[in-house]
Amino acid sequence: MKIQLIIGSTRPGRVGPQIADWLVANLPTQKLTEYEIVDITDYNLPLLDEPIHPAMNQYTKAHTKAWSQKIKEADGYIFLTPEYNASFPAALKNAIDYLYHEWTDKPTMIASYGVRGGQGASTHLRDVVELLKMRPTGLSPAFTITRDMSGEDGKIKNISEAFEPYLAMLKEAGDELLSIGVVPEAVIA
Q1: For the domain 2-188, what is the CATH superfamily, name and number?
Q2: Which pTM does this prediction carry?
Q3: Is 122 exposed, middle or buried (0-12, 13-18, 19+ CB in 10 A)?
């Protein structure tokens, strides 16, 4: 099972990549489980510019086709989102809005971070995920980031120590994500 961890922030100086690395190092694994970090900054998606609705699956732009191909590679997703002004970033919403069928029926976990754990972002993103017929986990890990956790470079000084209290919650949510993605053998036969 291939799970893509999608970094939802494009802000310079962001801690998303640091948190993504920590998540991948601490997520539960099962036989044949693979995690891949996907950074939306690598896809240079302008504001949605496809002339035909994504539900029609008739992409015309090279950037949309590349994004679609990448997202199709996964069996499930983890959206890692900061909280910006009580919601998730516009760049993440834009990246999600580019596609439609690629998301359908895929197991999904939302992990958020911010001064209050990013729970507003998580709540709003859950609404979008459910509308697109993804299958979200019941538990959405939320990581509180405080100023005293950050070094002069803006990064979390000792992420392993700072996030240690979240390990049990991450394991539980990760196990749920993997169990949602398992196809019963009877269906395979």
Answers
A1: Flavodoxin domain (3.40.50.360)
A2: 0.94
A3: buried
